Predict the structure.
Amino acid sequence: MKQIYIKIDGMHCSHCEETIRNTLLEIKNIEGVEFDGNIACITYKGKLDKSKFINAILDKGYITKEEYISEDIRNLKSNMELKEFMIITFLILIIIWSINKLFGFNIFNAIPTIDSNITYGMLFVTGLLTSVHCISMCGAINLMAVLETGSKRNLKNPILYNIGRVLSYTVIGGIVGLIGSVFRISNTLSGFIILIAAVLMFLMALNMLGVIKLKRIKFCTFKRGKHSAFVIGLLNGFMPCGPLQAMQVYALSTGSFIKGALSMFLFGIGTVPLMLCTGLLLNLVKGKGKIVMNKIASVLILLLSLVMFNRALLTFNIDIFKGFNDYGKFTASKIENGVQVVEFDLSYDNYQDIILQKGIPVKMIIHVDKKYLTGCNNEIIINEFNIKQKLKVGDNVIEFTPKKEETITYTCWMNMIKNTMKVIDDKDYFKGSE
């Protein structure tokens, strides 16, 4: 028995391995195929026609060539190189930064306000508006769903994926609506869900990047076939996504299976046009374009997992960036009649970093303009003082008393917007404000 190694580009999951293995085992004299990342170790006897298995791999939509074949695995480079990873990461971050700086638009916080006054028609419109958020936050999952088949390209995958999503949203909406009168997800439980999802997505990304090797991981390597995109769509309904969480809370408030299911169905249908068009476009990508898309998907999933991980930590009052705050840019409270007052205008994706004096009651006044109120920033969470307050248009007052020197992180209900309160014991610092 002899062995030969071949590098194959375009692989990103165990289904890819199965597809290639089954294809190669049909070729005469090939006895076994094992994988180390995107390098296949082929065990064979007798003579082996290299052109045959190269063409077989190419026919399945993957990329290889004669130069990718060697009898020594050390001659072949596996998976994404560090340089590629850094370039893709830099480009993604610079695009997000540019959109935010040039247009004042944060794609991660683009969530309309959803409350008990919203109409069914507006639920559909909300879905349309949050499609941009869906592309930014779930685009990598969409990519995995529509590109996961290594065989012939077809238009079924994007359609099946979206049908699965909408069905999942509808059923979940009905269930939470049914139990809405007796059950509500706590902030701590939500944090655990986000933390688990972040860890799983992080492992998925490392697996796709070739940093670690995971076999038969349930969240990304279930047995795939012609309906696997539909299954991924069903699983998408359990993602801890901002708009989805907002809609689930709304469905919970209906206290009705039918109303909860209908509200989530209309929202889901609203997200379909942009998600479907994106999926159809991605599904038509072949060859080198598919390889590039797979690499982008890997990096996107990794970055998304880190964002979600930070959100989960904030739920447990852990701010890993707390030591990097520049307190010179903080706003100090003003002491008036024995109460320290701090007031500011609500902005699209920010509250205010403030400095407070220990032991003096605080009156925080937030001025809210309707055009800046979104489904993300419309509820403030200050865990240290058990404060969870909805914001409305006009003046909003939040009162509490800081009793010790500490640095407090306060957030929006989704833990995507965060600001800092620095509590100090230095009355001289505030003398000019009295």
Notes: The longest strand covers residues 30-36. Residues 216-224 have pLDDT under 50 and may be disordered. The radius of gyration is 26 Å.
